[in-house]
Amino acid sequence: MKDISVKALAKINLGLDVVRKREDGYHEVRMVMQTIHLFDRLEISKNTSGEITMETNLSFLPTNENNLVYKAAKLLQDEFAIKDGVHVWLHKYIPVAAGMAGGSTDAAAVLYGMNQIFDLGLTREELMERGVKIGADVPYCIMRGTALAEGIGEKLSKLPPMVKCPVLIAKPQISVSTKFVYDNLKLGSDMVHPDIDRLVADIREKDLYKIAADMGNVLETVTIPAYPVIADIKDHMMEHGAVNAMMSGSGPTVFGLFDKEATAVEAYEAMKASGLAKQVYLTSIYNNARK
Ligand code: ATP
């Protein structure tokens, strides 16, 4: 096989708690990760140039070693002494710098795709071991589905599949740096933490209403005061029938869960008309694990 087309799916966090700041500066987290059916598409091909090259529809993205696509390709090229070149066409649809693991899922797709086209014979677990060298979220993006992520996000426990429901995604036209969010997080005794164990129990029970009630993201305590548009988007989704709405990751993307497709479609149209968000997508929960 010479060429492959791979989907790179985005994630949302149904729950995100920060347990503590470690001495090495990393934050220990507990996150409930969920794949959604919103994706980039990567066309990966091999050639005889020996080089790693890429192009993308988003002109502001780096196409050099700063792109996680490049890093993933280089990692496998070096480890397996691959003499061939690799070219990746990245069709980018997942909002960038948005809390949806866009770069990580692209890297995961490259590892998966190169394993196929170069017949490397790596198992999913072996790909995940390579992935963590690129980023803490990459192993999860290789695995997909519903999972509890602990440690710095790399310690994964698979959970039963999340209840299927429509998911509305809205990203305002602001950039929020992940570093800013973590640097400004105050983990004092008055911090209200989401109950991640209860959320996991709700997922096991497959009760969308309980899941919605127990969703929580501790990083909103930093982003909402700094960027009130995030609260405006959440309010807008709630006013249009979401069972709950919350920021994903370190933001600024907000997602809303809905119990009826018709309500979600109405909320999607209203969000687009509101001008609150630059990118608006109506998508759904995706539960298939990668083989
Ligand atoms: P996370 O949810 O893991 O915090 P994110 O959604 O906040 O991720 P990304 O979309 O992965 O963030 O991108 C963050 C930065 O990484 C961008 O500003 C971009 O310059 C750089 N980057 C490198 N590779 C990619 C890629 N393949 N897609 C998007 N951004 C990339």
Automatic annotation (TrEMBL):
According to the entry, every stretch annotated as the GHMP kinase N-terminal domain falls at: 67-145
Keyword Hydrolase tagged? no
The alphabetical list of record keywords is: ATP-binding, Isoprene biosynthesis, Kinase, Nucleotide-binding, Transferase
GO biological process terms held by the UniProt record:
isopentenyl diphosphate biosynthetic process, methylerythritol 4-phosphate pathway; terpenoid biosynthetic process
Name the Gene Ontology molecular function terms of this record.
4-(cytidine 5'-diphospho)-2-C-methyl-D-erythritol kinase activity; ATP binding
List the pathway annotation. Isoprenoid biosynthesis; isopentenyl diphosphate biosynthesis via DXP pathway; isopentenyl diphosphate from 1-deoxy-D-xylulose 5-phosphate: step 3/6
Q: What is this protein called?
A: 4-diphosphocytidyl-2-C-methyl-D-erythritol kinase
